[in-house]
Structure formats: C-alpha cells, structure tokens
Amino acid sequence: MAEGDAKPTGGLPDAAALARRLCGRALPGSDFVLPDSDVPTVAALARSGSTEPHPVFAVVESLRNLGFSIADLCALCEFDLADGPLLGELDVEFEQPLRAGARYLSSGTIESYERIPSRRLGVVDRLAFRVTLATPDGAPVAHVRYRWLLPRGRSTP
Amino acid sequence: MTAPTALPAWTGMATNADSLAWAQVLRDDNPLHADPAVAGQSGLGEGLVNPGPAGIAYLMTMLLQAFPGASIRRMQCRFLAPVITPAELVASGTVESRERVAGAEILHVVLELRARGTPAIAARAVVSIPEASP
Known about the structure:
The complex is a heterodimer. Chain A has 4 helices and 5 strands. Chain A is of the alpha+beta class. Chain A has one domain (21-151): Hotdog Thioesterase (Thiol Ester Dehydrase, Chain A, Roll), CATH 3.10.129.10. Chain A has a 5-stranded antiparallel beta sheet with strand order 1-3-4-5-2. The longest helix of chain A is centred in the first third of the chain and has 8 residues, at 15-22. The two termini of chain A are 20 Å apart. Chain B is elongated, with a radius of gyration of 17 Å. Chain B is α+β, with helices and mostly antiparallel strands. Classes of the chains: A alpha+beta, B alpha+beta. Chain A binds chain B through residues 38, 41-42, 45-48, 50, 54-56, 59-60, 63-64, 69-71, 81-82, 84-94, 97, 120, 151, 154, and chain B through 12, 18, 21-22, 25-32, 38-39, 42-44, 49, 51-54, 56-58, 60-61, 64-65, 71-79, 82.
C-alpha cells in the first residue's frame, strides 16, 4: 500500500490518510450551458413564479458539473453513496446572476477532510470543497462552498 | 440603526414527489432521496430525505418574494436536520440590519426553515435592493 493510502482501521478508512490524499485535490469541473428547459422545472420545485433562472441554479449547476458524479465524489472518499451523504453546511456567493442558455465553466477543489463525532449519526467524516462557476472568459459568477457529512457509523466490520 | 424587521412567513409543502424531482434535477443518486426503506434504516425518519438544495431554494424564494427586484448576494446555510417528506414547511426571516452601498440598499437577513415544526436550516443572507432611479 502506497504512502497516503487510506488503510482501513477498525473497518473504517483512515481519515488522516484520506485527508492527505484529498486536501487540495482539484475537481475535474466542466463546461456547461444552463438549459432553458430546466428554468421552469426548477422554478416550480422552488415554488417561484419567476421566469428568470432561480438563484438556486448556482447550487444545482455546481453539483451537476463537478466533472464527475456525486457517487464518484463519495468513492474518492471511500464512501458508498448508498450510505447516504448529507449536506452539513453551504455558503453561496454571487458575483452576477446566471442566465438561461449561457455557457459557463465550473472548477473546484477539495479543501479539507476530517473525522468528527456526531450524537445522531455516530462517526462522521466531514468533506469540505468549493466550486466556482465562471463565464468562458473567466469572470466569476458564483462561488459555492460545501461541507458534506459522510456517516461512517454504519460502516462497522 | 433600525430595529430588526420580521419578514412575512413563507409556508409550503414538500412531498415525496418533490424529493424525487429534486434528486433528478441534481443528478443525485443518493438513495435517501428515493428509497424510503434506506431513509428509515438510516434513523433519519420515515419518508424520503428532501435534497438540501431544495431547502435553500425555498429560503431564496421567500427572500425574493419579500423583496421583489432584489438579488441575493450571499447565503450561508447550516443544515440542522434533514427535511423528511412529506413535510409542512415554514420559512421565517428577520432583517437584522440595512446599509446603503453604491446605489443599493444592502440587507442582512437571518433565516430559518422549519419542517414538521422542527428547525431544518439556519441561514444568513445578504440581499441587494437597487435604489429607485430619481
């Protein structure tokens, strides 16, 4: 096993090794167009009557354009999506509104990874990462920072 | 310095269909959003877990309905408990402070989303309202 590999300890992957491997790692990101057809769908789900893209699209597009799936992101953390990751914290900052039909670039970085106790969930790993959405010429549109909770309490040997 | 101002409460209902639809929009295959058995086994509750971004969307909608023409500059959210659908939702907010910056009124708002009467999201938002042209 190479240095930095997350050798299992007591049935759980080694959080310190995961942190060494993941912190600072760039997410692939992608090049995408905010689909016109999704605007009314998200407006209805958000209970908004607006015909403009809802601001939650910054969150939606940041997750849809990590450059890989949410399951892949969990797999990087040696976490099974079936064990149910949870959103712990989110911070979204807007530089300009998102426009339907416009092209954007997403990029991201894993900022931290740590194991914490949780009264309700047992052992939990906390993954922090950020995603920036920008125009094709590099002007930032939105910055989204996440803290996800990965419950490890059920991952007993 | 003005006194804190409570915003009109926003109420709604999040259904199992909403959880499924949000997961589809987000391309999120987390079974907590789609399989009640998984959610039940997780100990989180009986039903489906509404994806977190849905709760953020409800709070954003509340702000934009309270301040037509405004834009949200920032929203910071802490997820206190998952929203298990079906659930009655109540969003509330208070404007804690106001300032004028470069032709806009900037509001600092404290927000909360409750589901089934339990706090689900605590949030702070910065909202920009353009000043009317003379």
